[in-house]
Automatic annotation (TrEMBL):
<keyword id="KW-0636">Prenylation</keyword>
<dbReference type="GO" id="GO:0005794">
    <property type="term" value="C:Golgi apparatus"/>
</dbReference>
<dbReference type="InterPro" id="IPR001806">
    <property type="entry name" value="Small_GTPase"/>
</dbReference>
<feature type="region of interest" description="Disordered">
    <location>
        <begin position="130"/>
        <end position="162"/>
    </location>
</feature>
<dbReference type="Pfam" id="PF00071">
    <property type="entry name" value="Ras"/>
</dbReference>
<dbReference type="GO" id="GO:0015031">
    <property type="term" value="P:protein transport"/>
</dbReference>
<dbReference type="GO" id="GO:0030670">
    <property type="term" value="C:phagocytic vesicle membrane"/>
</dbReference>
<keyword id="KW-0378">Hydrolase</keyword>
<keyword id="KW-0460">Magnesium</keyword>
<keyword id="KW-0813">Transport</keyword>
<keyword id="KW-0479">Metal-binding</keyword>
<dbReference type="InterPro" id="IPR027417">
    <property type="entry name" value="P-loop_NTPase"/>
</dbReference>
<keyword id="KW-0342">GTP-binding</keyword>
<keyword id="KW-0333">Golgi apparatus</keyword>
<dbReference type="GO" id="GO:0046872">
    <property type="term" value="F:metal ion binding"/>
</dbReference>
<keyword id="KW-0547">Nucleotide-binding</keyword>
<protein>
    <recommendedName>
        <fullName>Ras-related protein Rab-20</fullName>
        <ecNumber>3.6.5.2</ecNumber>
    </recommendedName>
</protein>
Length: 263
């Protein structure tokens, strides 16, 4: 029997959503490439494949710009987890999650997991330091080697205006408090018709991160990966019970494998 884990077919999909400039692409670069590097404003979407133990997880980066809004629900289709991202120095970016992005998740899995992430924590808190392994390695639940993957870029455009500049040593005003985030998370659960008591607690699912320093970035992604494992196992079980061709599973429009393996 072929080793499915070597086929790089995504078992599950995680999607990053949020306003432009909040740092979605930077978070993904930090996690996958262990770097904070210059970004270009995302057009359309791009995905990375992350091997997590025996499973393959596709992590989708989406465009926050208004003009690409229509694509969001397409990227969320079948998602097992959605990372709703805002910028802690920008109140409007939190408001946009509720006003513009939450409804895009209607196409996600019924048991989709939501994380609310306030990025750029380094701008408001000088104590926010690197929290990941000094050697830049991620934890692997099976202890296997981390696989370096290339982003599957669907499209890109020239550099956008950067976010508010952080001059060295200058601490910016934190516009979004943890309490603001916790109460938004509770409203998200209500929007989804989920019972607070039987859902993952807000405290566990609201993160503050810094793509710049790496603060909390591994914790964010790896908490989610662990939480989506039951969804992977359930899907594999369902596929065994009633095997069907699922075009959603193919890795999306950017997947060469999807095209080459269709017949
Ligand atoms: N200080 C600081 N700057 C950040 C951080 N994350 C991202 N930035 C900066 O914020 C700007 C936007 O980052 P991106 O990662 O491109 O933002 P995005 O959410 O992907 O934006 P779109 O692709 O347009 O939706 C860039 O200038 C980044 O360098 C962070 O954690 N701290
Ligand atoms: Mg981007």
């Amino acid at each position: 029997m072929p080793d499915l884990s070597k086929m790089k077919k995504p078992d599950v999909k995680v999607v990053l959503l949020g306003d432009m400039n909040v740092g979605k692409t930077s978070l993904l670069h930090r996690y996958m490439e262990r770097k904070f590097k210059d970004t270009v404003s995302t057009v359309g979407g791009a995905f990375f494949l992350k091997q997590w133990g025996p499973y393959n997880i596709s992590i989708w980066d989406t465009a926050g710009r208004e003009q690409f809004h229509g694509l969001g629900s397409m990227y969320c289709r079948g998602a097992a987890a959605v990372i709703l991202t805002y910028d802690v120095t920008n109140w409007q970016s939190l408001a946009e999650i509720e006003e513009r992005f939450l409804s895009l998740t209607d196409t996600a899995n019924h048991d989709c997991i939501y994380a609310l992430v306030g990025n750029k924590a380094d701008l408001t808190d000088p104590k926010v330091h690197l929290s990941q392994d000094a050697d830049g390695q991620t934890k692997d639940p099976t202890g296997g080697d981390e696989e370096r993957t290339e982003p599957q870029v669907l499209s890109a455009v020239p550099t956008p205006p950067a976010s508010p500049t952080s001059f060295s040593g200058l601490v910016l005003h934190k516009q979004v408090t943890r309490d603001d985030a916790l109460s938004l998370y509770e409203r998200i659960l209500r929007y989804k018709g989920l019972d607070e008591k039987s859902s993952l607690p807000a405290d566990k699912m609201c993160f503050e991160t810094s793509a710049k320093t790496g603060y909390n970035v591994d914790v964010l992604f790896e908490t989610l990966f662990d939480l989506v494992l039951p969804s992977i196992l359930r899907k594999r079980h369902e596929n065994r019970e009633s095997p069907t061709v699922d075009l959603e599973d193919s890795g999306g429009v950017g997947s060469k494998r999807a095209r080459s393996s269709c017949c």
